Amino acid sequence: MPHHVVDIWWSDLRVMDRGLLPLLDPVEAARAAGLEGAADLGRFVVGAVLLRVAVGRTTGRDPWSVAVDRTCDDCGRPHGRPAVEGVHVSVAHAGPLVLVATAAGPVGVDVESARRGPDVAEWVRQEAAFKAHGSRDGDGLHVQPLVTPLPGHAAALALTRPGEVVVHDPDESSAALAAARGQAPRSADRRSPTKSSALRCQSPM
Q1: Closest CA to 83 of 130, 132, 36
Q2: pLDDT at 188
Q3: Among candidates 36, 43, 150, which has minimal Cα distance to 91?
Q4: pTM (2 decimals)?
Q5: pLDDT in tens, 27-40
Q6: I need a labelling partner for 30 at 20 to 30 A (CA). Which of 23, 101, 117, 160 fits?
Q7: pLDDT of 173-187, one tens digit each?
Q8: Does residue 52 contact residue 64 with C-beta atoms inside 8 Å?
């Protein structure tokens, strides 16, 4: 991986279109099929595709060769937080915003609408810490706020050690998604979701 510690990729629902659905793997397609709201579907699809693109940019791998494990730690079903071999990742979304992080060590990110209340900054700090090491207290972590590309939201990043953070804005993410979409294989293994394969997610990203 490059020398910096973490890459932050911001995106939003403006990049969502149904042409991204065939880029999901079968597990992701099944989960997407269980999402009834357009915004929920958009956040999940953009996050899933951007995650592969971000890992590809970080590691030099073909994004469509990146295997994402979504096994839930509690029940073993494929609706847990994503994990990728060889790189640490974290995904979050709120409102129209989608946030993906890749790092050489444990990492957590979270974003929430400010409408959550006056404690939103502390909430995102705790959630980012939990994603990074399974505890919300932040002990042993470097937790910092992130500047969001849309007013009215708060976000945080948790790392095991401080270091350089490279932020990719929504325009850069949109260009990266468009480029990767043009290079995606037309494989039978990637298909649009069907209702018969739906799995409803009960776990946080």
Answers
A1: 132
A2: 38
A3: 43
A4: 0.87
A5: 999 999 999 899 99
A6: 101
A7: 999 999 888 877 765
A8: yes
